[in-house]
Structure formats: structure tokens, C-alpha cells
Design brief:
This protein is of the alpha/beta class and 301 residues long. It contains 11 helices and 10 strands. It has 2 domains: 170 residues, Rossmann fold (3-Layer(aba) Sandwich); 83 residues, Rossmann fold. α8 links the parallel β8 and β9.
Length: 301
């Protein structure tokens, strides 16, 4: 599969043009920014002669699915520390966990209280006692090697854009975009989580100050979704044939278009949206939407 820039054929006010970089097409199962974040981490794990990758994630984590498949593809065993011990007997009902298990991932389910300790040395030592030697991939995949991979998202052809916009989870993707951007470009991040802690996380990795976070489009917090967002994602797919995930990219695209209509961007702005993938999570979200008697998200005609 090949990444390409797709122009969005919608007439926007003030002669603004919108283009989406189809990072969701980079790999059939290790999608978008997960592919970028894992690239150099997998090479490092090989260099360190590690046989096992261990990482963390929630019930519908794109990262868990990506590590499971990438691990199998590159010859690693994989272990997923999963938030929520109530999920232990629900693997077959959960499309993400089922996929990860089918691709060889071993699970350790922990309570939400325990999961909060995942960065603490004592918690990591317990995992080493239990599972032996492993290469640790942080939750969401963000570390220096992940940022290095995300620096490769922008290419020379992207120099024509004034604005580059992406969803923000752990801050790795936007940090890579900032580092590889041109000084005259503005990088806008749309956090999928509530709270202001991300600014400090991004400053750890970002080497420029040509960026800003827009925190008005999280729809109530991580994983939250409502009818307005569902209808927007489905209408956008009908018009463009670009599927959007509801956790990250869907909220970012909603935000950018809303800001265009509110005259946030100067006339004649050329805006590049980064599609960071995450489409595997839609099956799980659609199960929840059916339970709530809401319309489901469309990913094909």
C-alpha cells in the first residue's frame, strides 16, 4: 500500500483548500502513525537481541493491535498489559483483543488502579520477574525512536502547505511533524483527551515552536462520541470516500472544518490533514453504538 495526498473536493469559504495524507493506507494492519512509531523501535529491539515486545493498552487500542501484528511479522513474541481486569473473559467479544490474540499476543489483564503504575520502576520489575527479558514499547508507542519515525511523515511535496493538522494522543506524532516541518508552516494538534498535560509532553521531543494545540474538539474526552460526530464522519465518507476513525482523526477533521467555517484560517490557506489510521477500532465502537441504539459508522459503501 502507498501513502498519497488526497485533495478534498469540497468548496470551502475564502478559497481554502484541504488535502488529507492517507497514512491509513501505509500497511493493511499496522496503520498510520503506529507503523511510523514502531519502525525504529523494532530495529532497536533487534539490535538489542530482544525476542519479546511488551506494551500497554486499553480494550480497543490501535497500538495493541499494531504491536501484535508487527511483532508476528518481524519474528517477536508479544505481550500486552491490558487496562481492565474485567476484560479477561471477554476477548472473543472484543474485535481488537481477538485480533491481537490471533496474531500471537499474550495478555496480562490488570485493574485500572494497577495500570496507573505502568511507568513506575517497581511495576516494570514485577513484569520482568514474570515474563523475563523484553523490549518495552510505551503505551501509545511514544518515545524518541517513535518521534524519529514520525519525522518521516512529511515529504518535500508537503512544503506547499501553510498548515499541517493532526490528532494528538500521546504527543509522538505531532512532535515528529513539528521537527520535520518548515519554519513557515504551522502545526496544529487536536487532542483526543481532556486536559493540558500534553503541552509539556510535546515539549520533551519538539525542537521548534511553530505549533499549537486546539483543545475544543475532544467531544467530552477520550473515546467519547455523540450523534453529531457520527453523522459528520458518515457524511464525510459519503462525500470523499475517506473513512475516519471516531477517536482521533474524525474529531480532528471535524475541528478543522469547523474552524474553516469560523474564519480561523486566513484566505487561500492550504491545509494538510494527517490521517493517522486507527480504523481497526471502528468495529468495537460500532458494537457500543448499537448497544446505545445510535447509528453505526460507515467504512465502506
Amino acid at each position: 500500500m502507498k501513502v498519497f495526498n488526497q485533495h478534498i473536493n469540497i468548496d470551502f469559504p475564502n478559497h481554502i483548500s484541504l488535502t488529507i495524507k492517507r497514512e491509513d493506507l501505509i500497511h493493511p494492519f499496522v496503520s498510520g502513525n503506529k507503523f511510523r512509531k514502531l519502525k525504529y523501535n523494532l530495529l532497536q529491539a533487534k539490535d538489542e537481541n530482544k525476542a519479546t515486545l511488551l506494551t500497554f493498552g486499553g480494550a480497543f487500542s490501535n497500538h495493541i493491535a499494531a504491536v501484535a501484528y508487527a511483532g508476528k511479522e518481524h519474528g517477536f513474541k508479544t505481550i500486552g498489559i491490558i487496562r481492565g481486569d474485567e476484560l479477561l473473559d471477554k476477548i472473543q467479544e472484543n474485535p481488537t483483543l481477538k485480533f491481537a490474540q490471533e496474531n500471537g499476543m499474550q495478555f496480562e489483564f490488570v485493574s485500572r488502579e494497577e495500570y496507573r503504575l505502568k511507568s513506575e520502576e517497581s511495576f516494570i520489575e514485577k513484569l520482568q520477574d514474570k515474563f523475563g527479558d523484553f523490549y518495552l514499547v510505551p503505551e501509545g508507542g511514544t518515545n524518541e525512536l517513535a518521534v524519529k519515525g514520525c519525522e518521516e511523515i512529511l515529504t518535500d511535496e508537503d512544503s506547499v502547505f501553510n498548515y499541517v493538522c493532526c490528532a494528538v494522543g500521546t504527543g509522538g506524532t505531532i512532535s515528529g511533524l513539528i521537527n520535520s516541518s518548515l519554519q513557515n508552516q504551522k502545526i496544529l494538534g487536536f487532542p483526543a483527551l481532556k486536559g493540558d498535560f500534553l503541552t509539556d509532553e510535546i515539549r520533551i521531543f519538539a525542537k521548534k515552536d511553530n505549533w499549537n494545540l486546539i483543545s475544543d474538539y475532544h467531544f467530552g474526552g477520550y473515546g467519547k462520541i455523540n450523534l453529531e460526530l457520527i453523522e459528520f464522519i458518515n457524511a464525510f465518507f459519503e462525500e470523499t470516500k475517506v473513512p475516519l476513525d471516531p477517536i482521533y482523526t474524525g474529531k480532528m477533521v471535524f475541528g478543522v472544518i469547523d474552524l474553516i467555517n469560523k474564519n480561523y484560517f486566513p484566505a487561500h490557506s492550504k491545509i494538510l490533514l494527517i490521517h493517522t489510521g486507527g480504523l481497526q477500532g471502528i468495529d468495537g465502537m460500532n458494537i457500543k453504538l448499537k448497544q446505545k441504539k445510535l447509528p453505526i459508522l460507515k467504512t465502506n459503501d
